[in-house]
Amino acid sequence: MATISPRHDQEDNLIGWRAIIRKRGFPSQTKTFRTKRDAEAWAKVTESEMVRGVFIQRTEAERTLLSELLDCYATEVVSTLKGGSRDMSRIRTLKTHLGKYAVASITSALVGSGYFRRCCPRCPAYCRRYSL
Fold first, then answer.
1. In the chain, N or C terminus with fewer CB closer than 10 Å?
2. At what angle do helices 108-119 and 84-98 cross, to 10 degrees?
């Protein structure tokens, strides 16, 4: 069972609700929400994932932007490749369209919308041939 507790500022004004889940065999999960209902809903979903065995810890993915990952990839991997300039062009395109998103929030619909927006003036064959 999760612990839901109010969070107060220095003047004792309510600023949000903290949900804490402690379950044997899993790392402690803590998240803060604006409403108690949101905290309870998150705790319920997370606990059910733990019980079913499908829990994935997302905290690092929620904090990391795709642009940070692409920068790391560019400096550590692409710089060692023979044809790295082509990959750098693709990295710049990805950073333009998706770099501001957290890794956990990137969905196939989001990737598809940026892809088709970029290819829109050209023919479909071009988009298939030069897809990311």
1. N
2. 110
